Amino acid sequence: MTRTALVVRGGWDGHHPVEATELFLPFLRSSGFDVTVEEDPQVYADADRMAGVDLVVQSVTMSEASQEAIRGLRDAVAAGTGLAGWHGGIADSFRASSDYLQLVGGQFATHPSKHPDEVHGDQSDNYLRYTVEVSELGRSHDIMAGIDDFELTTEQYWVLHDDLNDVLATTTHPVQPYHPWHRPITSPAVWTRDWGQGRVFVSTPGHSLDVLQDDNVRTIIERGMLWAAR
Fold first, then answer.
1. How far apart are CA 145 and CA 119, in angstroms?
2. What is the pLDDT of residue 1?
């Protein structure tokens, strides 16, 4: 049976929404999805169309969406449509919408930078070597099967989140003398969330194409999309 996947992309160009989503279209098609792509989240407001969507893959950093679009997305997920994404394309979207933030369960707050002596004023200022640690729950979850703790050099997301998330992996921000926090802060790096009859999947790694092509990250995202889909 063919399922339907709707890829919604746009927003800030720094996350390469077109190139990033194109990486995963062959996988979706080979996994039996009929894939369509939209460049505007207003598609979420089309209730008839959304009712036939089994999976939404969203890559829209920042930007804005109408109240009708957010309501349509929430209603679709509650009725069984899966929602999946990575990095700012899902965890830093539609900042002005509390209804969207509640649906996704995590909001990007910052990505701590290097030592002040090592910053140059470009994106690489925030590229840190850090560990993605698989949680106890993650070790028994299909999405993380066979994946051990692994390291990345990229943006390390500090995420505001809530307890409805099932956290499959975490990352910890250490205390540094040049940062104002006083104890290590652990943020979810991979999580799932049940919402009505639907499922939500989020991976915070995914800032750039090379990170998305990391074997661990790509495997997690591919499995996460399949897990979220109706």
1. 37
2. 79
Q: Do 42 and 65 form a contact (C-beta atoms < 8 A)?
A: yes
Give me Rg for the CA atoms of the chain.
17
Distances in Å between the Cα of 36 and the Cα atoms of 89, 125, 136 are: 17, 36, 36
The residue whose two tokens read 């200022």 is 125
Tens of pLDDT along 59-107?
999 999 999 999 999 999 999 999 999 999 999 999 999 999 999 999 9
How is residue 129 written in tokens?
């070597």
Question: From CA 107, how far away is CA 105, in angstroms rounded?
Answer: 7
Q: Which residues contact 14 (CB under 8 A, 6 or more apart)?
A: 61, 123
Q: How far apart are CA 137 and CA 193, in angstroms?
A: 13
Can you count the helices (H) and strands (E) in the chain? 9, 11
**Which residue do the tokens 């560990």 mark?**
131
Cα–Cα dist 90/183, whole Å: 27
Position 106 scores a pLDDT of 98
Does the pLDDT value for residue 207 go beyond 90?
Answer: yes
Alpha-helical (H) ranges within 35-117 are: 47-50, 67-78, 88-91, 98-104
